[in-house]
Amino acid sequence: MEQVFSRTIRAGHIKEAAQEHVVVADEAARAALAGPYGLEGIALLRGAFVLRHEQGGVIAATLAMQARVTQTCVVTLEPFETRIDERSTLRFVPARTVPEGEEEELDPETLEGPDEIPYTNDMIDLGAALAEQLALALDPYPRKPGAELPEEYRGEPENPFAALAAKFGKDKG
User: Fold this and answer.
1) Which end of the chain is more exposed for a tag (fewer CB within 10 A), N or C?
2) What is the pLDDT of residues 69-125, one digit of tens each?
3) In angstroms, rounded to a whole number, what is the distance separating the alpha carbons of residues 11 and 55?
4) Structural domain tally of the chain?
């Protein structure tokens, strides 16, 4: 997706003492993010990052994110507002260059722990990181409080093999 929300800072300016950076999306950025994220609207998107320099250019971060978004209920198709209040741990890491023709292998052990976000040219994009964390926090099947499926759609879905079992199970006599 095209970068629609960007707030950059220099990684080199972050030293051992923790720094706090508050990022708030303006109306234009919220409108630009709403469509690609399948939202009716975003009334608020705010992130408070606490950044601390680690070894080798790695920047450890904690993020306290608040958002108010309008989603469409998958049951009633009505819009409704949802509040998101999430905390996450991130690590901004210098981007590694992978030689052309090779693919970077994922190590299953590194899939645990904080999200790692690569950066280049000593620039960390807090806006992009905040937008990504919003995308991860969104319910892919939003349901308006109190919305229920119609009676005919409740219950267990029929097993696709049930008809075969019924037909061939009886023939086994």
Assistant:
1) C
2) 999 998 889 999 999 999 999 999 998 754 455 554 555 555 556 789 999 999 999
3) 12
4) 1
Helix (H, G, I), strand (E, B) or coil at 150: coil
In sequence order, the 6+-apart residues with CB closer than 8 A to the CB of 113 are: 89
pTM of the model: 0.77
Phi, psi of 88 (to 5 degrees): -140, 160
Coil, strand or helix at 99: coil
Q: Quick count: other Cβ atoms within 10 Å of Cβ 110?
A: 8
Tokens of 30: 């919220």
Q: Which domain holds residue 85?
A: 8-96+103-171
What is the DSSP-derived secondary structure letter of residue 145? Answer: T
Roughly how many angstroms between the first and final C-alpha of the chain, as a whole number? 59
In contact, 93 and 117? CB cutoff 8 Å: yes
- The answer to whether position 138 is within a domain reads yes
